[in-house]
Amino acid sequence: MQPRFSLILSCTMLVIAGCGGSGDAIDAVRSDPNDFAGTSNPVDDFSSGSTGDSSNAGDLANNEVRITMEVPGSIAPDAELTRRNLRIVQPDRLSVYETNPALQNLGSVDTSTRIDSNGHTIITFAEGLPLAPDVIIEASYGNIRMRAFAADADQDVKVNPFSEYLVRNTLPDYTSGEFQSILDCVGDAGGQLCLNKYVWSTIADQVHDFEIDIPDSANLDSALALLDDHGDFASYVASMADYALLNDTSSGKISATSADYNSVFLGVELGQTFMESSLSGSGQWGVRTAQEELVQDTNGSAYIYPGLTLTSFDAFNIKVTSLASDIPYDRETLIHQAGNTFFSRGADQWELNTHASSPGAATLLSDTRLLAGRALYQSITGRNSSRIIGWTRNPYYLDAYTSTPVDDTTGPDRLVSGYFSSGKAIELQASGDSLSRLEVLENQHVSVLELDLLRQEGFDAGTLDNRHYNVVYLALQFDDGALSPTAPSTATLTVESGVGSWQIIDGSITQSHTTDTVLRDNSGAVGTATGTRSGTWTLSDRTSRLSDQDKDIGRLNLDITTESSDFEQPDLGIGAATPDGTMMAFNLDDSPFGDGLLIAAERTGVAAPSSGRYRLQGLTMGLGADTNHLRHFDNAELSITSAASAALTLSTLDITHKVSEESVSSPVLNNTPDMPLAYSASGNGRVELSNGDLTLDGFHTADGDQFYFRIRNTTGDEEQIGLVIATRLP
Prior knowledge:
Low-confidence stretches: 1-38, 480-489
Strand content: over 45%
Helix content: under 10%
Distance between the termini: 35 Å
Largest sheet: 13 strands, antiparallel
Structural class: mainly beta
Mean pLDDT: 89
């Protein structure tokens, strides 16, 4: 049996949860409640500031766990209903034992059990809570037997199809040497504490944050098959199991004690709506863009700005990097009903929402990749309306690029990442002080691109003057002619992507872009177009109102002509720059060509890289005669093999809406063998990759570590367009 470190785990996690701070959005994230006293059923206890998996860890000692067994409806149809359409039952039998990659029972563990006042079984571990995946809790009910790892971060061990999937699909894939390395990490065999000793308690907890409903008719085998068919869930489990193999020598830390970032965020979603009976089951596109949030009460007003904080410190000789973030966002949607009827809802039809992550530890690999399992908080809108909506978001595996800091007192000037998170909109009903779940209103599948650029107090937009930039953007435009299902519109969906250049002189941008457009007209027909955008725009500082005073922290306004004031909505969007001005990013918001993301990197005379491996992340939107298709590049890999050749190994999550059938698939994980690409550079950082109809057109940064591309492809009757990033791997 491996040593137990319950005291160290508790202390370290408390430090991680409370670190950092920048006086605005990040402080709000850290103060959100995440406390569930007693033994609540999450069906009756929906709350913001928590993940979907309500914890039943109240009144437990540090070496105790509470067991909750959840089975499909076919096993216990009359039992208490809980999240994900499972039923809570009291297990007939429980056993706790050590195991190995063959999942053998290697003997019992020194434990005792008791039953609490609510009928739950409490297991006490005499030597402290397990942290390694070598201790199994097995529960039986009737003829069904399921297992869970005892290492669970919140001491609330749920034994259900999700935990059984985790057991079956991780340990058997480890070699004996890999499994031993995990045990050595937990046991500090190298003589110093190992950060990744806590990865398994994170995995065992976060799998229960996934919102995947198990049908009433399912048995255990079909429930496990269903989970395996959800590519986002299967990919998360596999990625986190690989992540657990990193040892203490892989973990660095950011140079600065704390670094705060301005976040620029684009979420493109494809899902299914059930909000109105006349539209139930129709497919729905959506776009989410980061916004400032004005908060007002009797004490005055304040702003929450989209932001992320990285904090680094040594806890018990462990190098710890912690993340916390909060991104308020606007949302616009377009419903596409069978028969090619369209209904659009602008941002004024959706209450401002928030995309906030639970604070937690991450691993800095080779000072260039930030790796972590990330859990996202639930949120609630419409509290004072006739329809209260709860929003859930699935966890994801973060593989982000970080730049090299300029010195030991400064954090990386950027974090660049792409990730995927499905979720739900759920109608809620107030019951006393609690909110109970009712019907699912939407299923959502969201591909995200996020750029977090280092804040600098006293930033001056004059830093950007007399410089040239390469630029790429993606923008979506939904028709605003109909704002309710009772007034069908002639709505069209237009997706535009541009690549080009900026020259900035005294805040005036001379811009020139070539554009590709994919659109669907009101008959449902798909069309394409190419063109150009040129002219002048205006760039200016956007002062931020923080808790102490108004400051310029690197946030920017982008206007067509007249410069916007600090608290006025600019013509094109709001963005941010790195302190040295080598990179900018903007959320396009109600611009003449739609809502989306624009990225600008300073032009370079450095030759394009002729070798290297790069993580490819991003998305394409595909429009076909009877289909809509969202493709998320799930940590694919671009390999540059020479100055004229490259190869692309694709790993994608694909969601397909079949219009005439009114069906939307769950995320399907697809892996494609190496695809050869022609590779060419045209100077000033501009590059192109191509294979047949597939073209990636964009630019690289001066250090050769980052590429930003417009992507365009035609496959059969489907026209695909999107935006991808490629960042160097160690």
